[in-house]
Amino acid sequence: MIYNRREANCNRQLFMQTTARPSSAAKTALFLLLGVNLFNYIDRQILAALEPDIRATFFAADDVHAMTKTGLLGDAFFVTYMISAPILGFLADRFSRWIIVGSAVILWSLASGASGLAATFAILLATRVFVGIGEGGYGPAAPTILADLFPIETRGRIMAIFCSAIPVGSALGYVIGGLIGAHFGWRWAFYLVTPPGLLLGLLCFWQRDPRVAADHLAQKSPRRSVRDYLNLFRTRSYLINCIAMTLMTFVTGGLGFWVPAYLRYRGQSPAVGMTIFGLITVVAGLVSTLLGGVIADKLRSRLPGSYFWVSGIGMLIACPIFIVALYIPFPAAWIAMFLAIFFLFLNTGPSNTALANVSLPAVRATAFAASIFVIHAFGDVQAFWLLGYIGGHANMHVAFLFVSAIIFASGLVWLLGVKYLPADTAAVESRST
Question: Could you tell me which of 51, 107, 399 has the C-alpha nearest to residue 251?
């Protein structure tokens, strides 16, 4: 394969940089991006927590299509997110990733605040479009910055720390949405999250792109072969990971959006039910996310394909526990939900680490962007309307039972990819060194 010599030199310097001890700049970047990711998921799940109240505001109580329509709010976000991510990810491989991240965070924070001002459902739908565009700029660039800054031996743990914002942010979104919505109305929940997002976005402008130290890439962008981009889609572990992550995204996106409606279907009060579910998500999801990354890193030298092993086994264990949670009464169902969420989140660090490890540094943002497009186009975008349709025409129990089959399928796909991951990772490391 023809490979640009200057690009090879850049990748070599990046590799040497990331095998050294993490600098203070790397640690600062980790904590700043962790904070940004936290509000990323708070913004996402506030909408889910407020969905019943938003539905009551804009639609009649006897409208059987109301849940399908409010599901479009999730689709509006993720469709624009997945479309803008490849475009902005492509730019993130060529310009300062921090500038793109900061601008993206400010955009989605302003759009999220504007959601509270929406006088009609159409306006609310439009604000979610701009939230999606903002996150489309952030999603591909943020994990790529961390992959450039930290050594491959600890990358699973770093990605796990970064991804730990997913359960914490999601839970806080549920809690903030549930409590603020119940006491002050759903609009105030959107207002509350805007100022912190603006502050975090501004702080990004003071950070230095790690590639500047490697080869001044912010000023002199080298040529990238089209073959380097096409090679992503010839990498079997990358494709398998995208398929498994798509199924996983269907599960987490669908459950995240419709769990408030499910808890009401099971007779749980909005405020109390969402608070308990939020606390469960924080504890189980946080511990599991961190543990998954640590375990996969520890097993890497002894168990080839450890990132896929941890991801797949976690999903296969979660499946029967999740089914049990649907059939046993509350409060015992909370225990089963805790265990199911714990095993569902084991894959977050390992799967993202595997994605970074099988893509060249020069096109890594594009690799994440392409993955974002695929997993959302065929994952949660489909889950929002489909589970809403099933819930509206049957009930939420049937909708969540359908989800259990997707959980099982995702675990199988990750295990099928185990034999390809070590060779694909080694190929990228050899080209980088």
Answer: 399
**Selection from 399, 318, 376, 312 nearest residue 350 by Cα:** 312
Q: DSSP 3-state helix, strand, coil percentages of the chain (rounded to 5)?
A: 85, 0, 15
pTM of the complete model: 0.73
Query: DSSP assignment, residue 223?
Result: P
> With contact defined as beta carbons under 8 Å apart, do 364 and 141 qualify?
no
How does residue 314 score in pLDDT terms, banded at 50, 70 and 90? Answer: very high
**Across 229-309, where does the E strand assignment appear?**
none
H/E segment holding residue 339: helix 332-344
Q: Which residues contact 422 (CB under 8 A, 6 or more apart)?
A: 304, 305
CB 411 within 8 A of CB 312: yes
Query: What H or E segment, with its residue span, contains residue 369?
Result: helix 364-375
Q: Which two tokens stand for residue 186?
A: 């759903």
Coil, strand, or helix at residue 113?
helix
Instruction: Give the amino acid at 63.
Output: D
Place 21 in a pLDDT band, splitting at 50, 70 and 90.
low
Dist. CA 57–CA 77, nearest whole Å = 20
Is residue 217 pLDDT above 50, yes or no?
A: no
